[in-house]
Amino acid sequence: MIQTVELDLATIVEAYFQQSEGEWESHRRYYTLKDGETQEVISYLTVQFLPPGSEPLIQLARMHQLEDETVLTSGALTTWQSNYIGPSPKTLTGSTLFGVLGNLLYRDRGFSTGKPITAQFYMRDPKTMCLKTEYSGNSFEEEVKLIGTQYRTRQTIISRAGEEQMIGQYLEKRLK
Question: At residue 155, does pLDDT exceed 90?
Fold first, then answer.
């Protein structure tokens, strides 16, 4: 007889963030759909798993004015240095704090805003997180998939007023 174990969403997401912990090199390509422009980016990311009750998650709960500051079930802190290669070369550094409560992913900032935001998410399987974030008339649909222990793929579709504007595709390799 085969027994199956059903895990709750919080347990699956916690394991996903733990497996994502480490240092990554990310090769990205953004395609602007209307004008066909392509932007390449090489980033170095550090992902740190955050257990429930950790100080960064408490700070995130405060930013979102959650009544219970310890309610976030797990999370991650991602720091990065991104090097944009032609046509608009530049270097950016920063961080994003993520925390989970139910099927909402709380963030201290968005892709194109420094303000706290939330994203709805689901786990297509234990290795694939799918997100949808909406603010300022923009919609961001993202899929982040762990492939084995050494790689992740990501795809982001950015839309405005219901029309797709940009697609970002990423291949990330674990360095540590």
Answer: yes
